Every structure is written in C-alpha cells, then in structure tokens.
Amino acid sequence: MTGRIHSFQSLGTVDGPGVRAVVFMQGCPLRCKCCHNPDTWDFSGGSEQSAEEVFKRILRCKGYFGEKGGVTVSGGEPLMQAEFVAELFRLCKADGISTCLDTSGCVLNDSVKKLLSLTDLVLLDYKYTNSDDYYNYTKCRIQDVDNFLLYLDDNDIPTWIRQVIIPGLNDSEDSIRKLAEVSGKYKCVKKTELLAFRKLCVEKYEAMKIPFELIDTPEADQDEVRRLQEIIDSEN
Ligand code: SF4
Fold first, then answer.
1. Nearest 5°: CA angle at 110, between 105 and 180?
2. Residue with CA at minimum distance from ligand 1 atom 3
C-alpha cells in the first residue's frame, strides 16, 4: 500500500511525548487561516511511498525513542489517507513502537475508526471554541470535531487537545475557559496544550503566491500563552 508523504522528520520533540519520528502526510481538505504548512494542502503533491518504506525509515530512528517516544503521523491531514496510516501503524505496533496521530479530527468513517484502533495517542487540534469562528477560520465544522472527540472518549483512546493561541481570535479568557470545559468533559483527554501562533510560514505563502490572511495578526506572546495555560491547568 502506498501513501503520499510530504516529509519526514527523524527526531521531533514537539509532536507528542519523548523523541519521535514524525511523518507529515500530504493533502488537507481544511483551509486554516493560521496554517503554517500550506505546502501540504495539495493532494497531488509530495511523493508516493509504500508503508514498508516509511516503516523502514522509522525503524532507523528507533534507538532514539526511549521509553516515551515513537512515531507521530501529522500533516496535512492524516485522516485523508487513513488506510495507509493504519497499515503503517500496524507495522509499528508489531515492532513495539508507540503510535501517535496529530489530526484536526475533521472526518470519522470506518477507515478512520480502524486507524484509531491502532493509535496509542491522539493529538487533537481543537482550534476555536465557537462554531462560527471554527468554520470561518478553518472550513471545518466544530460539530465534526466534537463527534470525533466523543468517539475517542467512548473508545478510551488517550488524547491531548492542542490549540494554537492566535491574538485577537481565540485568546480571550472566555474562550480559554470554554476550552477548559471541553477538556474537562471527556475522560480521554489527558492533557491540554496551548501553542503560540507564529508567522514563520510567511515565506512559504509568498513562494506559493497565495495570500497569508493573518499577515497583520501579531505573533502570540509566550508569557501570555503561559498565563492562559495556567488557567487551563487550574480548571482541569
Ligand atoms: S488542518 Fe493543519 S494542514 Fe490542514 S489547513 Fe489546518 S493547519 Fe493546515
């Protein structure tokens, strides 16, 4: 089985616990205005690789994983190639490698359910807390993400919720408290992690000749993100 791969990172430390090999899948149906990887959107981009080829690359990194690390599949949106990722995770788990899926949670079908049965940890990007913003800024419906989260909860799949904090869009205390409410509602959520909006992607947008709609939005202040994280931690 083959999949379309955008890129491979041997030793990632920010996408899940420990040191991880990170596979970025090509193709995404969403259009998040804060997206820092617009080069992953095109479903015909990237390169076609077999699950065995990708698995062999992961195996070469295995010595660095330690107790907590493993593989993370990110994107793009990995759910769009769920059968391929399921095959890759099957190979990894047979070799004792822990599997983590970094996703927007926009799709839930039988292939995705099979993939989730082979996933040890989900990093769920919960991007906004009200339905209008969710759709306007991502082209994904919050109901779909909530359904996905409910499925994770019903099936006891450990989950970290992650949110990129974007000044003026989702950084109000009201929004953060709503996010804390979502986290507190589901027992599968083991951690809620706030990340700071950055604009390192501007050059990618320029090279692709597409507008970066948040060009005038300031980057998030790290101290402010820490303060908001403390609110989340104190409520859960
Ligand atoms: S889901 Fe991820 S890759 Fe897709 S548009 Fe949003 S941020 Fe970009």
1. 25
2. 76
Q: What is the dihedral of CA 31, 35, 39, 40, to 10 degrees?
A: -70
The segments of the chain whose pLDDT lies below 70 read none
**What percent of the chain has pLDDT above 90?**
99
Domain boundaries, the chain: 2-235
Question: What per-residue confidence (pLDDT) applies to 235?
Answer: 87
Q: Which H or E element spans position 97?
A: none
Residue 101's H or E segment, with its range, is strand 98-103
Pairing of strands 47-50, 2-12: antiparallel
**What are the distances in angstroms from CA 39 to CA 24, 76, 99, 147, 206?**
11, 9, 24, 28, 11
Determine if ligand 1 sits within 6 Å of the CB of residue 32. Answer: yes
Ligand 1 within 6 A of 171 CB? no
**Residue with CA nearest ligand 1 atom 8:** 35
For residue 201, the model assigns a pLDDT of 94
Helix axes 142-154 and 131-138, enclosed angle (nearest 10)? 110
What is the spatial distance between Cα 73 and Cα 24, in angstroms, rounded to a whole number? 6
- Tell me what pLDDT residue 109 has: 98
State the CATH class of domain 2-235. Answer: alpha beta
Residues 71 and 59: beta-carbon distance below 8 Å: no
Q: Is 140 in the pocket of ligand 1 (CB under 6 A)?
A: no
Q: Of 15, 22, 24, 28, which is best to mutate to test ligand 1, by the most ligand atoms within 8 angstroms of its C-beta?
A: 28
pTM beyond 0.70: yes
Residue located nearest, by CA, to atom 6 of ligand 1 = 32
